[in-house]
Amino acid sequence: MEKNSELLPGTLDLLILKVLVRGTMHGYGIAQRLKAISGEVLQVGESSLYPALQRLLLNGWVEAEWGASENNRRARFYKLTPLGRKQLGVERQEFQRMITAIQKVLETA
Amino acid sequence: MEKNSELLPGTLDLLILKVLVRGTMHGYGIAQRLKAISGEVLQVGESSLYPALQRLLLNGWVEAEWGASENNRRARFYKLTPLGRKQLGVERQEFQRMITAIQKVLETA
DNA sequence: CTCTTCCCATCGAGAGGCGATGGAAAAGAA
DNA sequence: TTCTTTTCCATCGCCTCTCGATGGGAAGAG
Questions:
Q1: B4-108 CATH choice from 3.40.50.970, 1.10.340.30, 2.60.40.10, 1.10.10.10
Q2: Mutation test of the interface with chain A: which of B105, B107, B108, choosing the one with the most A Cβ atoms within 10 A?
Q3: pTM, to two decimals
Q4: Within 7 A of a protein CB, which nucleotides of strand D?
Q5: If chain B, 109 residues long, is cut into consecutive pieces of 10 residues, what is the mean pLDDT of each piece?
Q6: N or C: which end of chain A has fewer CB within 10 A?
Q7: Nearest by CB to B38, which of A7, A41, A101?
Q8: CA dihedral sign, ordered B51, B19, B98, A17
């Protein structure tokens, strides 16, 4: 009966894009990084992560390439495309717009 | 091809509950108020609003009563229950938790 | 009498998050 | 050597939520 959402719906793409600004990463690493930066708050399950990455690939926001991880395992590395960088800007702005609006409601009553 | 979401998914219940703290309102009024307070940013369509209100009713967060609007029209007035007030607190806190985490990611890279 | 505004509500589509599931391969423990 | 843990990939099906389309009905303005 508990609805434990570890993620704010509609923000996952934005989060992934942002993390990838730093540089190429594999999926597992992205999830870990999000968790770490957010202080264990943002917990991206693999069944949310990989579909999201597929979306980003399909839209051309990211590119993927197979390689070896730091732990010597087969891993798929994702990289932000120029288009993805642009998209990040768009989504970020839109997000802030929404948050500002919501906060107004939460403060104004 | 444009996906113009006028709402951050998963926040509608919270917004409605918050608006109802002020007092009893009918559905149409709630939508108008959200739009006004948010500076026209939050545009709640009726096909999002009424299902949401049903949810809230079902969960016992709000109560409904038929009456007449300021414009002398048949309207259903929604009122926050004690349970709803409690729920508002929960959702609000959870929301802030999420936002804080997301902002960290957006700033920390 | 018609048009606009106000007010209710549902349906079906599409999207997105998530639990469950299923691999596979490396490293270390037993 | 065998077992378990950790890392890494990915999909399927369920469910929830948002939203465009649709369909009223009643008040007031023109």
A1: 1.10.10.10
A2: B105
A3: 0.94
A4: 7-13, 17-23, 25-28
A5: 76 98 97 96 97 97 96 96 97 97 92
A6: N
A7: A101
A8: positive
